[in-house]
Amino acid sequence: MRFLTLIFLAFVALFADEFKVNVDGNIAALRNLDGRIYAGLDNGKLYEYDVTNKELKEIYRLPKVESYFDGMVDSKVIDVDKIGDKFGIVYDGDFMSKKFGVLENGKFTEYPLPMTGIKKVFFLDENTVILMTIATDVLYYDLGSQKAIDHTKFTEAAMNGNVIFDRARNLLVSTCEGGVLFYFDVKTKKVLREQHIHKDNIFYVAMDGDRILTGSQDKTAYYENGDFKTYFDAGFIVYSVALTPGYGAYTIMDGIQLFDANGNKLRTFKHNREILNNMTFAGDYLVGAGYDKEIFFWSYK
Question: What's the pTM?
Answer without folding.
Answer: 0.92
